[in-house]
Design brief:
Elements: H1 15-38, E1 42-44, E2 48-51, E3 56-58, E4 68-73, H2 80-96, E5 101-106, H3 110-120, E6 125-128, H4 134-137, E7 141-143, E8 149-151, E9 154-161, E10 170-178, H5 188-193
Parallel strand pairs: 4-5, 5-6
Antiparallel strand pairs: 1-10, 2-3, 2-6, 4-9, 7-8, 9-10
Length: 221
């Protein structure tokens, strides 16, 4: 005897049920990330990058007082999606940096990166990896059919290991994940999904720099 389905054929499950499943899966994912980080040993080169002022800086120097660093792999100023993710870190920056360093790495040259970061009002450290193999070595680069090389978006969690036995400090990658619409690192799609018509074809664009904050006064006129 077949037990009748709780939900009619072709009906969607209630959103609360799916959200509960997602919460369980996110807990599993967090545990998997923690396990991967605990056993990580992937060595990362201490690349020489460039600040937005054009000065050379070693990757190890970007950790500052922290042992851990979140390195944002950005595709450059022409990518509206990468800009959307980076804009989202504006508010998170002050919270993240209580726990770890946060650095955005871009393929743009230092001058271009400096101008674009200023136009977006990014408060976090930005560095140029132009002229290095950072993106290719870390798996965030692909070759297009026409032969052009394209960086890819994502984030890598890095740890700075102290010097020992006369050796210099070293860097390992403890976790990494790509960025893309609907991921856990940019909340705009779930928010738009709450609307009656959802995202309705919306996609990020590259508008002018952010305008001054807009406030609405509620009260008697």
């Amino acid at each position: 005897m077949t037990t009748p389905s709780v939900h009619p054929p072709h009906a969607h499950r209630p959103a609360r049920e799916i959200e509960a499943d997602l919460a369980r899966l996110q807990a599993e994912l967090a545990a998997a990330h923690a396990s991967a980080a605990a056993s990580a040993s992937e060595a990362i080169t201490d690349y020489t990058l460039h600040t937005t002022a054009g000065a050379p800086v070693r990757l190890s120097a970007l950790f500052g007082p922290h042992q851990d660093l979140l390195l944002i792999h950005n595709m450059g100023r022409t990518c509206a999606y990468c800009t959307l993710w980076a804009d989202g870190f504006i508010g998170l920056h002050r919270h993240i940096t209580q726990r770890a360093a946060l650095v955005l790495a871009s393929p743009d040259d230092p001058g271009t990166l400096a101008a674009f970061a200023a136009s977006r009002q990014w408060p976090f450290t930005c560095v140029s990896f132009a002229g290095t193999t950072l993106a290719a070595d870390m798996g965030y680069q692909r070759t297009l059919p026409d032969g052009r090389v394209q960086p890819l978006p994502g984030v890598s969690a890095l740890r700075l290991l102290p010097a020992s036995g006369g050796a210099a400090p070293s860097i390992i990658r403890t976790n990494t994940t790509p960025f893309g619409p609907g991921d856990l690192y940019c909340p705009i799609w779930p928010l738009l999904g709450l609307l009656r018509d959802g995202a309705k074809g919306w996609a990020p664009t590259l508008p002018p720099p952010p305008a001054a904050p807009h406030t609405v006064t509620i009260g008697r006129s």
